[in-house]
Amino acid sequence: MFNRNRFLRRLAAITSISLVAGCSALSSGPSDEEPILVGTTSAPSTLDPAASWDNSWELFRNVYQTLLNYPDGAAEPGPDAAESCDFTDEKNLAYRCVLRRHLTFSDGDALDARAVKHSFDRIKRIDVPGGPAGLLGSLDRVETRGTREVVFHLKEPDATFPFVLATPAMSIVDPAEYPADRLREDGEVTGSGPYTLASYEEGDEARLTGNDTYRGYAQRKNEAVTIRYFQDSSSMVEALRSGKIDVTYRGLGASDIVSLQDRASREGLQLVENPGIEISYLVFNPKDPWARKTVVRKAVAQVVDRAAIAHTVYKDTVQPLYSMIPAGLTGHTTGFFDDYGDPSVTKAHEMLTGAGITEPVPLTLWYTTDRYGSETAPEFRELKRQLDESGLFRVTLKSRPWKQYVGGYQKGEYPVFGRGWFPDFPDPDNYIAPFVGRQNALGTPYEAPEITDVLLPRSRRASNRADVMKEFEDAQRILVDEARLLPLWQGKQYVAASEDISGGERALDPSTIMLLWELSRKTSW
Fold this sequence. Notes:
Layout: E1 36-40, H1 57-63, E2 68-69, E3 78-79, E4 82-87, E5 94-99, H2 113-126, E6 139-145, E7 149-154, H3 161-165, E8 195-201, E9 205-210, E10 224-229, H4 233-241, E11 247-248, H5 254-263, E12 269-274, E13 279-284, H6 294-303, H7 306-313, E14 318-320, H8 335-340, H9 345-354, E15 361-368, H10 376-389, E16 393-400, H11 402-410, E17 416-421, H12 449-459, H13 469-482, E18 485-491, E19 493-498, E20 501-502, E21 520-521
Parallel strand pairs: 1-10, 1-11, 15-16, 15-17
Antiparallel strand pairs: 2-3, 4-5, 5-7, 6-7, 8-9, 9-10, 11-19, 12-19, 13-17, 13-18, 14-18, 20-21
């Protein structure tokens, strides 16, 4: 049980990976009781779910609990803390969940309907800029009926609402520990997930131990997981090769991926490539005197060479992306390629001079130094090279560590900045809705009334998500025309692990979040 007086103050984020178990026999090695050692270059920005709309979710999935999750590899949400959830009316305006019996938090407090209502109400009340309140735009109010029944009353039909409930942002928290009107400030966590926190050293490691009071669908296959943080891919891969960690996820650099492709089997390692739905993109801030000009944004879009970035910087471990919705999801288009074609300085020059801009446009591009992997800095140097060599721009690069970076873009400090995106849930809605409207995940208001008031509400009335192709094609046409967001590439999923790790084929949910409880050590064939 979680003892708050013993534990240190911060938690680690688990980012998405998928593993495939090897099949070699092991003559000796660590016992099943030893923790699985997982390496990452990514850490959480917050410990409080009410503040998090980022990769902090990866840890939340494992230490907190949500009403719905993705049981046994399901493609759609199913019960976790809830025993059942369903829409109760023909208009899909009331969504009712009944909790499992005898749920408790790790400190022994009851997890009941009151705790669920408290968790949702505080997200909306605190309303952190760039936080998860933006996911609850369709929620009107939360009603409790007794100790186990909760009804979510919606302002409008929303077929994606069950997916929202399954996101770690909707983690259920203890009312006794998480204030109703402000974020928790003691740096500790009280959850009801499969794990509790044993210790944490910020920037170094987090130790998770099994939570024996957990009641939900997950069946934990290990007793403990230790997460170790690295500053770069090369040191993380070296730790894997030397046996200091068992698994790597998020942050593998392109050079290390290429090296592992050649040598993994000889070194007793696994390297697995899977299709990915991670995207990377640029955000233009309308408060900036240059970035606010549509013609400037379109000229940048006309010059940027995505293929060069994918090949030169990422060594073809990513692929060029020409829409905000990645390939493989309903609504994917190639709008930016259709409109701009191949990169052309001549066309960009004509755009700018046609608008009376005859001198190089000064732009400052910001990126984070420790969030999206070792290739982020080279990627932005390549962007600067492309734009500067066009003669049409004069680019300055600036960067910050993630925690400071988030605060900067939420305050509107950056003229142009880079972001990556892993989906909250596997639906095209989640590649459009988080980035538009006054309240969005970027902290940069983007008024797009046709998208927010017409296209998204219409699409959310369709329970069959295959029927929303036109709405998302229309939404992306608006994004291309305005060029406020510039997609760059779509990632693949690369995971490296030692041969004695199994269970990874079940360890990735449809939102590409890792389920640590599925991992175990092999002791035989």
